[in-house]
Amino acid sequence: MNLILLGAPGAGKGTQAEIISDRLQIPTISTGNIIREALKSGTEMGLKAKAFMEAGQLVPDEVVIGIIKERLAKDDCQKGFILDGFPRTIPQAEALDKMGIVIDKVIDIEVKDEAIVKRMSGRRVCEKCGASYHMEYKKPAVDGVCDRCAGTLVQRKDDHPDTVNARLEVYHKETEPLKDYYAKQEKLSVVEGQATIEDTTALILKAVEA
Ligand code: AMP
Q1: Known catalytic residue: 36?
Q2: Predicted structure pTM score
């Protein structure tokens, strides 16, 4: 099963991707996490992406397309994968098609902008493994510590309010047209993402199994 999770930043793609990935036993590929890793290790790609990311802008298509091409060629993707945060533009979606990657389903998680802004301010991520938490909706067992790897939980720079607004603007302009793109291919399922994490997971699994 080759899946794409679509939705605004903060719609819960990362959290849902982790859960669905466990259930279906297929890897999640998050371009955001790959770029943050590259930034941490100071690679050339990380340095190129830094300014775009911190300003809430998209990293250029050719950079992220290169990342995805390399990642999808690895063995663990052969029986399926979940894309979280890719594609984010029409040229990125076209690049997947050109690579001959067949996408089975695209799940769009819908959350209103006001709720997104509220969510993002409470979001924390593990510095070490990238797992995501929320100070209200998905608390770790121990404050500030990752349940999975005991890493420190931090607020992403791009989750600060000004940057969140910039990211939402970019989402509506560049990413939202993908809904139409995949609706035309009859692959799109729209899922309500404002209820609990469990409710959203149930809706996603239902859409995946349909
Ligand atoms: P995310 O963790 O998915 O919200 O991604 C964080 C940031 O990484 C985004 O705001 C972009 O700057 C960059 N990024 C991640 N994925 C992509 C993508 N597919 N296209 C362009 N930029 C991306």
Answers
A1: no
A2: 0.89
